[in-house]
Amino acid sequence: MSSHDKPLKIGLTNWIEEYNNSICNSDELLNRIQTFITSYEQVEKDEEKQSKEEVTDEEGWTLVTRGGRRPGLSRKERLEAKLNEKTAKSSKKKELKNFYTFQIRESQMKHIATLRKNFEEAKKKVNLMKQSRRFKPC
């Protein structure tokens, strides 16, 4: 089967040649990548132009696209912070603070204790005010 004009390569020599042929040159690979990227960018630009233009079908109806008159909010840092704050507030509202009965009792006891403490402080202030008043006849 093998001849001098076309020698038949088998075994290890065949595998080595196949491997060496499978590896491409770095310059050739770079050129292929560059052409692919430029063609992809061109396709992206074309699609963007088509999406910006009003699209009409065969019957003359204008198709409604996602953009609309006001396509949406720009994501700036201030707006991002406000949105994060809002989501944190809403998640706080959804959180169950006093789920069990003993938690409800404890929270009520703490509330009553703080009210009593504030009442005592107010009484002390009133007593100090009364003591500081002096009758000064002219």
UniProtKB/TrEMBL annotation:
Residues 45-54 have a biased composition (Basic and acidic residues). One of its GO terms (cellular component) is UTP-C complex. Residues 21-137 form the Ribosomal RNA-processing protein 7 C-terminal domain. Signal peptide: none annotated. Belongs to the RRP7 family. CDD domains: RRP7_Rrp7A. GO terms for biological process: ribosomal small subunit assembly; rRNA processing. Pfam families: RRP7. Residues 45-77 are annotated as: Disordered. This is Ribosomal RNA-processing protein 7 C-terminal domain-containing protein. It comes from Acanthoscelides obtectus.
